[in-house]
Amino acid sequence: MKPLGKKSITLRLTLLFTVVSALVLTTLGLAVGALVERHFEEMDTELLVGKFELVGHALWEHSQSALSDRLDAALVGHHGLAVAIWDASGKPIYSHGSVDFPSIMKVPGTDLRTHPKLWRNEDGQLFRGISGTVTGGAIVAVSTELQVHEHFMHSFNKTFWGLVALAAIASGLFGWLAARGGLSPLREICRDTAGITADHLDRRLTAEDFPIELAEVARTLNEMLGRLEASFRRLSEFSSDLAHELRTPVSNLLTQTQVTLSKTRTAEEYREVLVSNSEEFERLSRTIADMLFLAKAENDLVVPELGPLNLREETDDLLEFYEALADERGVTLSIKGEASVAGDRLMLRRAIGNLLSNAFRHTPRSGVIAVLLTNVDGMATISISNTGQTISPEHLPRLFDRFYRADPSRQRDSEGAGLGLAITRSILRAHGGNATVRSEDGLTTFELRLPSIQQ
Amino acid sequence: MKILVVEDEPKTGDYLHKGLSEAGFVVDLARDGFDGLHLALTEAYDLAILDVMLPGIDGWQVLQGIRKAGKEIPVLFLTARDSVDDRVKGLELGADDYLVKPFAFAELLARVRTLLRRGTKAREDDVLRIADLELDLRRRRVTRGGRKIDLTSKEFSLLELLLRRRGEVLPRSLIASQVWDMNFDSDTNIIEVAIRRLRSKVDDGFELKLIRTARGMGYVLEDGE
């Protein structure tokens, strides 16, 4: 089927129209031809049988001498009609018209009255004839010459098949026109989509302008364009975010290094600069690693290695890790509840850890960070609440966006590049879950939900 | 201890050579896969550090060549690409560890020492000592100058790690991973806080400070200069 798939639809439709109409017309032509032929045959047979009976009658009524005249008189004016009579021994008694009857018709006792015979003589003339044995043993043969019929059929066929050919060509032409006309909306779609480039990804096809069959195609194309536009926008935002986020630290490094090099310093001063650079570089490489993780997650390349996981145990371990920090800051940690999921241990630890780090960043001295685990209706929930400033509602939906900082004045503080929450969300999504946040009355709660398993 | 480094990036190669030499190792540096494999097969090394992307034959092929020749030296891979496939491939081919560029040099050094230690069966001492500090593993007791120091269980593990790897600069990420089993970057100063608290218990009131900060790199436990 492959070569067919490559041919143009117009050509295929044109061929189809031509072939189908030629087939239909040929069948019709053959049927009409056969009907006409049969009609002629019936007429001939009727004539031949009539003459046969006439001859039989004459044979019975008249003596041999009177017979010739009687028959000649009866047969005059019948153009192309021939009659021959033989006696029982095969001797010719009478003959009208010089026709050489086939020998099978002369056999005594033969009866071909109801089965007319067709034959050609040496000149190629076509005859139809019947023969039979009449009372008294004589054999009578009657024939008619078919030149007129043949002539008619010939010109009939010529005209008819000419018409058939013309009609087939005409319907092919109509087919071509119809296909071209029918496909013109496709060409329009082509033209319209050809105009959509990376610079104009916001353009759409107007589905209403197309016939019903193609409106669906236009809508599907539009949906695809929508998805493309979204990924394209994400990608370019991603690049510009990355460039922007890397510019500040690189600029700091460059300035600091060049200022240091501008005059001779003590070993201790050089040391200071190198240490500070090293810290900055480490932060940069962390940012790059995190960006790569997010880029992979957006392309569904982050595949969690799922295993049964007791979230309570994992969170307990995490809280133990953060314990010293909590002590130091006078922050109270608490945990309640149980939940079990199928998840990637490293990834989920990171997801929860990021939320805890975030909570520590925003909890004031002697504040509270509370973790609550629940397991309801097949969904495990980890909610991490911290006391502190209420985040205004306009920031909430964007908190999980990479590099988003609710408070612009906190740009690039010493901790965090603003990717932690984005990573948490992408990890949860890779687990078929989601991450949400709400904040009211001095309490901010992040909630992670993912499918649970029964422990 | 002799280490083979196969790295084509000139600066990286030079600094690995310099850093590892200064850390007390004998280092041979090869700039491409052919030289690397040749050296690995003709010289005796305790460890090989291979870059994955190399001119000539790549790191995987060098590793295969080494293993085919029946050499069981530990191999650490360096790569700029962090993909699970690469990691799996490396481990399947018999790599012992895997580090993604850019990495902290202290991290590399720590991993190299871990790999080198793996072969030699460490003496299982019940008591670890440095200067006048004693850590009794069996009784989980710590004393300094004969005086008992009360530590939480994590502080004990942290001190044990520092003691076992005395003289080595341990990066924060390694400490978080070894003591708390946390393998992500917490974006907080947790390790700093934990070290500060441990230091106040171990070093406060003593002339000789044992826990030192290697600025920009990590922490190290050592006595003397």
Key structural traits:
heterodimer; A: 455 residues; alpha+beta; Beta-Lactamase; Helix Hairpins; Heat Shock Protein 90; five-stranded antiparallel β-sheet; five-stranded mixed β-sheet; 55% helix; rod-shaped; B: 225 residues; alpha/beta; Rossmann fold; Arc Repressor Mutant, subunit A; five-stranded parallel β-sheet; four-stranded antiparallel β-sheet; transcription regulation (chain B)
Give the total of beta strands of chain B.
Answer: 11
- Amino- and carboxy-terminal Cα gap of chain B: 23 Å
Low-confidence stretches of chain B: none
CATH class of the largest domain in chain B: Alpha Beta
Beta strand % of chain B:
15-25%
Given helix and strand content, the structural type of chain A is: alpha+beta
How large a portion of the residues of chain A is in β-strands, by DSSP E?
15-25%
Q: Give start-end ranges of low-pLDDT stretches of chain A.
A: 411-415
Give the overall pLDDT of chain A as a whole number: 85
Helix content of chain A: 40-55%
Largest interface (C-beta under 8 Å): A-B, 38 and 25 residues
Sheet having the most strands of chain A: 5 strands, antiparallel
- In total, the number of domains of chain A comes to 3
Give me the strand/helix succession of chain B: EHEHEHEHEHEEEEHHHEE
Query: Could you say how many structural domains of chain B there are in total?
Result: 2
Seen as an oligomer or otherwise, the chain set is: heterodimer
Strand order of the largest sheet of chain B: 2-1-3-4-5
Strand order of the largest sheet of chain A: 2-1-5-4-3
Task: Report Rg of chain A.
Answer: 52 Å
Tell me the CATH topology of the largest domain in chain B.
Rossmann fold
Domain HAMP (chain A): 180-233
Catalytic activity (chain A): ATP + protein L-histidine = ADP + protein N-phospho-L-histidine
Subcellular location (chain A): Cell inner membrane
Pfam families (chain A): CusS (PF21085), HATPase_c (PF02518), HisKA (PF00512)
